[in-house]
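Box 3.1. Reading complex inputs
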Amino acid sequence: MSLKLVPALILMAAPAMAQEGSIIVQSTTSTANSGLYDYLLPMFEEQTGIDVNVVAVGTGQAIQNARNCDGDVLLVHAKPAEEAFVADGFGTERTDLMYNDFIIVGPADDPAGVAGMTDAQDAMTQIAEENAMFASRGDDSGTHKKELALWSDTGVDPAAASGQWYRETGSGMGATLNAGIGMGAYVMTDRATWISFGNKQDYEIAVEDDEDLFNQYGVIPVSSEACPSVNADAAQTFTDWLLSAEGQEAIGAYQVDGQQLFFPNATDSNAPDDNG
Amino acid sequence: MQDLAESLSLAIALVLSGDADLIEIVALSLRVSLSATMLACVLGLPLGALVAIGRFPGRGAVLVAMNALMGLPPVVVGLLVYLHLSRSGPLGFLGLLYTPTAMIIAQTILITPIVAALARQALEDLHSEYAEQFRSLCLTRMQTVGALLWDGRFTLLTVGLAGFGRAVAEVGAVIIVGGNIDHLTRVMTTAIALETSKGELALALALGIVLLALSFAVNAGVQGLRVSAAARGAHV
């Protein structure tokens, strides 16, 4: 190893030039994995010159990262946790951004006989009664929080069967789908991730169209009072654009395989309330 | 196996197409892991050499610690670096989180023990061969370290490659401190993890094949250096 290389390396290791116009979005995975950002961000970046860097992790981790001031905007889907984030002073304001819904997918042979059901709790109770395999995120994500809320309504305690028919993967949505499909388990997923998922094999949507499966996404700029390091102006510009008529229209126009993945509802007061 | 065939042809197509995104990701992987390897060698080789020739109380414990740290879990290193570089952490003011620099730091921490421990073993063996000669020449400790590092340079090249291999293949640390941000901190391994989570298994595997090819290329390059140096009559 030539020591002449060392100065060059130290240069390489120097901090990247801080960009005035760049923000970090701490985001849930479904918006990233479904390609929504790849579609939206170039429009926004071209108009404003602001670079948007997306860190896509589970909602729980995204909120924790934002509480550590490691993001300028939070875009997740767990309304109670988002409201707590704002109440604790970490966010300036939470706004509904868009929605879609959760579905339960299962193998084509449908071992629990739940295909076609439109009541999520009934279906989940039946899965539990049949001891059919169910793969849970188990990672404190928005989807996991939602799933636990649904279980608590059924009276079934899935944790008691953890490791048996109830399998907690502790991973992201995609990894959980891969694992669930590998073991023939039912999986609850957001519809956007499912439509754009590439490894469906023989899996089909078993349960859908239940109001309880409503999935609301919210957007929150991180507060510059709690986190002086945030790029507050750019974060607000990005949030305002998402909520503007133009941003909302762009969200609604995004399709995969001819299907709309996200339904903008920033100004829609008629949307069903998220009870998750 | 159909997946494998599909992935192989996809990998070849990706490489031949010269896809700009792929080149960017490959370049960042190389930049991050080669930088980390260089830094780990600068820190780890002299450290390994000093421990190799040194006789001091507690040396046994140091050896155990060095060897044990070779097994540092990447995700733990990532978490520790994250906690330090986070805006709420002690080094948060540097603004390094979610930058390639953070990734270099994490990988350097991960592989320095590997470089140091392997270098220590190699140089200790070499030292026992030359110990009498060194004594008769009345070399100082620094001169001994220098002579050992020079004489063992080809073995140490393999040590460096072991470190590089670990760095370029790990995903746990860089995904936490880099954030897998497109066009900023996305490297081969985090891209593979992302495609896997999207269910794009063939593409994920194709990227894996490209990464493996990259590793072959780096190792072949180093091997070439070694052979040409040997041909020039250098001491092997």
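In summary: The two ends of chain B are 43 Å apart (CA to CA).
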